[in-house]
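Try this one yourself first.
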């Protein structure tokens, strides 16, 4: 499908922002974006997953067609992958319950057939964990923090940080969730919201250049122009092409020890006379 056709086939939904947020968090974890992986690693430690680099598996049962454009990483689930529920007893092997979890999402009557420890795991948007110990937990990702609910099997909740509230990763005992707020100012959420506004403007205009009223910022219009120029190409081709411009290496940092060298001269210090105006004090 061409990029220009995307706006015509898309069905507007109030859930667009939430779905995009789930994809953005999943992608940030898999790309090891530090602002997200540091917080996810902190949350995982609170649920007893302390080894290996954080990884994400996009569950996304309800997002039909997502796997065509989004790398879900479902292959990370092995026969030995276990889902930690926070309950006593041996954690269940996740792979054997994937089909039942999918059925539970679509058919409420199927939910009672799941083990009690993971009976609410069908609500998960992501499985977060690490392939090294092969341990995973269900994570709920909500763009609206008021919609974050606990359930049996869910252990982590990812939400945008609230204005004036702490963004510390913390345990919410009432919901039995480790809440992981994502920072906004000059950080991940601000970039996410800005990017979504550009996308919404492009989709609304069939990937022709949006009006100045829709995108008044020159920098945002420059981003939009990259896609407008490629509106007649297939979506996959456009995604591959624009990745060339990303230059992620510019965001990579390295720690180095820098030595300070003192340069001393043999010339003795000198004192010079400086001339300057002196204010008059005899003015009436």
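Now uncover the answer:
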């Amino acid at each position: 499908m061409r990029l220009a056709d995307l706006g015509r086939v898309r069905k507007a939904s109030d859930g667009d922002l939430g779905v995009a947020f789930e994809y953005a968090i999943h992608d940030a974890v898999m790309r090891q974006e530090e602002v997200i992986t540091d917080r996810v690693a902190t949350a995982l430690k609170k649920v007893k997953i302390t080894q290996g680099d954080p990884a994400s598996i996009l569950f996304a049962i309800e997002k039909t067609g997502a796997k065509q454009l989004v790398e879900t990483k479902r292959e990370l689930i092995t026969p030995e992958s276990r889902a930690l529920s926070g309950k006593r007893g041996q954690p269940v092997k996740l792979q054997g319950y994937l089909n039942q979890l999918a059925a539970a999402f679509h058919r409420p009557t199927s939910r009672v057939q799941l083990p009690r420890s993971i009976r609410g795991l069908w609500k998960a948007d992501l499985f977060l964990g690490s392939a090294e110990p092969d341990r995973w937990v269900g994570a709920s990702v909500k763009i609206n923090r008021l919609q974050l609910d606990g359930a049996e099997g869910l252990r982590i909740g990812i939400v945008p940080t609230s204005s004036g509230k702490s963004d510390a990763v913390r345990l919410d005992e009432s919901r039995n969730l480790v809440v992981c707020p994502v920072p906004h100012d000059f950080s991940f959420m601000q970039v996410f919201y800005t990017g979504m506004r550009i996308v919404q403007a492009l989709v609304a205009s069939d990937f022709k250049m949006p009006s100045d009223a829709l995108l008044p910022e020159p920098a945002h219009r420059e981003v939009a122009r990259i896609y407008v120029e490629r509106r007649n190409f297939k979506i996959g081709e456009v995604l591959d092409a624009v990745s060339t411009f990303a230059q992620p290496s510019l965001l990579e940092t390295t720690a180095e020890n820098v030595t300070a060298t003192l340069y001393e001269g043999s010339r003795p210090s000198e004192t010079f006379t400086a001339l300057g105006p002196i204010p008059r004090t005899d003015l009436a």
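Discussion: The two ends are 86 Å apart (CA to CA). Residues 96 and 115 are 12 Å apart (CA to CA).
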